[in-house]
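Exercise: predict the fold of this chain.
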Amino acid sequence: MRAVVTGLAVLVMFFCAGLASAEETANYNGWERSGRFNALYQPDGYTMLKGEVERFFKVTPLPGMVEGLGMRVKLRDGSLVDIILAPVAYVDFLSRVFHPGELAKIKGAWTEIDGRRWFVASKVRLREMFEVKLRGTRSGVPYWDMSMKELEAAESD
């Protein structure tokens, strides 16, 4: 049953991603696949973190980018990690649906921006049944910058 619920959550996210990519009013300036920020995501450093959600926050990783959503997670060893998720227009619902204290599993890669270490998420799983895919694991291409054909192909990623 858990696999079915997880599968449904992933399908819902693909549907939402498709709607977001078709939404003409969404502003993802600076978050495009050809942008400087996306080049910071290095899939060869792909790893996973587990921890408890501390809070969500707005973040602008590089000058000129529209605001993004970040998430601070407290790892099992007590350390705090700041995670860059995606443009606010793409994932703002996360900060309204999930709350501090909930467990999260985040997959992505580490990067450094202006001397500060960040974790750039490719997938976020909350409540062990809801997974949000943010970028292709191997390619690093952001879902908000994919065509419907690319989204369908990425489903197996």
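Check your answer against the key: DSSP finds five helices and six strands in the chain.
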